[in-house]
TrEMBL record:
Residue span, CBM21 domain: 29-139
GO biological process, one term: protein deubiquitination
Pfam families assigned: CBM_21 (PF03370), UCH (PF00443)
EC category name: hydrolase
Record keywords: Hydrolase, Protease, Thiol protease, Ubl conjugation pathway
Family in the record: Belongs to the peptidase C19 family.
SUPFAM superfamilies cross-referenced by the UniProt entry: Cysteine proteinases
GO MF annotations, alphabetized: cysteine-type deubiquitinase activity
Keyword Metal-binding: no
EC number: 3.4.19.12
Catalytic activity, as annotated: Thiol-dependent hydrolysis of ester, thioester, amide, peptide and isopeptide bonds formed by the C-terminal Gly of ubiquitin (a 76-residue protein attached to proteins as an intracellular targeting signal)
Identification of the protein by name: Ubiquitin carboxyl-terminal hydrolase
Amino acid sequence: MSLSCEQQCINGKYYLCMPDNFQYPRNLLHRVYKNLVVLEDIFTRNVTAYGTIRVNNCSFDKRVFVRYTIDQWKTFSVLNAHYIMHYADNNTDLFQFKLTVPKDKLLSSSLLKMSFAICYCVNGGKFWDNNYSQNYNFEIIESSREVPTSILNQLSRKKSIIRDDQLYKQITQDYHAISNTTQQIENLCGLKNLGGTCYMNSILQSLSLTSLLTNYFLYNQDSLVFKGIIINEYLNFLYLIRCGQYSTIIPAPLKQIIGHINYAYLENQQQDAHEFLIVLLDYLHIDLNRTQCTDEEIDYNLFGQINKNSIIVDLFYGIYKSTITCLQCMHTSSSYESFVCLTLPIPSTNQCTLQDCLQSLNEDEYLIDDDSKWFCSKCQCHSNAKKRLEIHKLPKILIIQLKRFQMNSEMRWIKDESLVLYPEDDLDLHQYSSSPSSEQALYTLYSIVNHNGSLNDGHYTTFSRDLSYDQPQWFEYDDEIVKYLDLDQLHLNSKAYLLFYTMQHIPE
């Protein structure tokens, strides 16, 4: 009995292969001004191409589409590109597209080729980027070849994330992976800055050294099938940064895939590292829930409406307990809310300790103003009350955000450069938690995301150590530069913004 096309697609691995001689456009703006439309960036995953297009902003009314074929133009289809943003400094617009080869076109018995060109319709005219009349051509191949055993054996785990030779070749090219150099330290890998993406690099370095999360991904390949596009791309990235084979990679594909879902991350401009961390953890959580999801597509904005169980929730989520007490009858009411980051204000002083910042958790907030009084269900009226916040459940991975940015009386954002002294080991939070098990909860610091400079003109770096070693060494990650960290920098660090702690004794 012969297999249907869809069954063949499931049983075989197919890839869109970019030509070896493919080159991204040089002098991008010059070409945009001359030709009006240019394919700015493209990469492929399986049989899907993710691309961005730059056009000259000639008019408000415009349309950009991709015309493609897989039968040498005997037939063709049209895919509209979506507007993303306007670049005011050079008067250009950015569009994106996601082009997937239909399943019924994939035949394992023959090699196929997808060709496409880009059309820009504006002011009554059509302007094409067809790769200098050659079109953009991608082979569609089926591959079952595995990565050479010599490469797999160099990984410190039982099975490689990437076992297919074609995918291995593709991701090393897409990430522009540079092999080890004599200057490389401890087989560690740096991340190239794409123009304002140090916020992303600092978070990716910290997450890759979160052993509980990384080991979960690396050692569960036999039992789990990950379906989401973000988690699979994160696994590709994780392989490259942790395999010890490369000194530098460029995380553009992961950024582009996240950007195709959240447009703020398509552009190479500065963003807040804390916000990116929350977004990435949410997306990974959603994709982890897709292991039991049959839908082809999932809405990444529906975090609160999906299954709450995942390794992300298990590791990173804690629970606040908020207790409000009526000051008239002493009736109390408690509510619970989850958190990923413990956000702490910095006391008004040039120097303090992390314990000083934590004291804010034990401070009562009095609700006595007319617009803040609490409605007491026992008194049946709005009454003066006090509110106390405690940690009901401590997370296994504790991330602390120091509130360095605040708005002053003139409604301007200012940065607090106070030195906050934080412990490397044995951070004790039991006095801030209402849970009896918290008495045994001690934390060890393993990564710090630092912010240097001002809010609008800043730079992120990372201090990290790999706790899987008996005597872990601290390193500084400054984009692609990795070097040993001077301990004075670690202990007298007024730039610390995010602190990553892991629980020393994980409860069963």
